[in-house]
Amino acid sequence: MEVKTTKIKDCFILEPKVFKDSRGYFMESFNSKTFNTITGLPVDFVQDNESESTYGVIRGLHAQQGESAQAKLVRVLKGEVLDVVVDIRPDSETYLEHITVKLSAENKQQLFVPRGCLHGFSVLSEKATFFYKCDNYYNKESEVGIRYDDPDFDIDWQVSSEQALVSEKDLELPFYKDLKK
Ligand SMILES: Cc1cn([C@H]2C[C@H](O)[C@@H](COP(=O)(O)OP(=O)(O)O[C@H]3O[C@H](C)C(=O)[C@H](O)[C@H]3O)O2)c(=O)[nH]c1=O
């Protein structure tokens, strides 16, 4: 497993070792000991999630806060997405900055999204199956989110606004500046 840092503290890109042979390939998609050693983070995942979306879908930007804050280890099983992480940790050097990373079944890259960050993705392939491990359980009441098109962040989702397919819930999300403090 190779690990690359990003400008957002504790937000890592992980590249698992892929063993290819005449049958296809094998990889350890997750190994707790390896993960904790290479990231230095003692993360204990408790819930796996999976979603499938069609081209142009944008899910997010969401996070759970307080006692229910979640770190996520995300990857794509089918297709390709543009993954987006926005740092909303007030004491972080990259507060309100964001990164984008292309994750695909092809590149097999994974992204570790630390607690305290908003997360979302846009689907760049016809369909995408998205899989992620969470280190805390779902708690709807603790959810916060901002609109994907918040002008303060100017995120390029690589999907035109005409093609973007966003849930009613996500269209009703506030801009960051309007979040109840
Ligand atoms: C997240 C979640 C949802 N649900 C139920 C609640 C809804 O009835 C249904 C769809 O939920 P939602 O529309 O919030 O799903 P997404 O828009 O994909 O939400 C996710 O989007 C971005 C990309 C994230 O990083 C978060 O993990 C998560 O917020 O699944 C559950 O039962 N458990 C869960 O952990």
Question: Describe it for me?
Answer:
- It contains 2 helices and 13 strands; from the N terminus they run ββββαβββββββββα.
- By secondary structure, the chain is mostly beta strands.
- The protein has a single domain (46-178), classed as Sandwich (Jelly Rolls), CATH 2.60.120.10.
- Strands 1-2-10-7-12-5 form a 6-stranded antiparallel β-sheet, with no helix packed on it.
- The longest helix has 8 residues, at 32-39.
- The N and C termini lie far apart (39 Å).
- 30% of the residues are buried.
- DTDP-4-keto-6-deoxyglucose binds at residues 49, 51, 59-60, 62, 119-121, 138, 167, 169.
DSSP helical segment count:
2
Q: Residue-averaged pLDDT, rounded? A: 96
Overall shape: it is globular
Radius of gyration: 16 Å
Q: What structural category characterises the helix and strand content?
A: mainly beta
Order of strands, widest sheet: 1-2-10-7-12-5
Total individual domains: 1
**CATH superfamily, called what?**
Jelly Rolls
State the CATH architecture. Sandwich
Ligand types: dTDP-4-keto-6-deoxyglucose
The poorly predicted ranges are: none
Indicate the proportion of strand residues: 35-45%
CATH topology: Jelly Rolls
The biggest beta sheet is recorded as: 6 strands, antiparallel
Head-to-tail CA distance between termini = 39 Å
CATH class: Mainly Beta
Number of strands: 13
Helix fraction, binned, reads under 10%
Secondary-structure element series: EEEEHEEEEEEEEEH
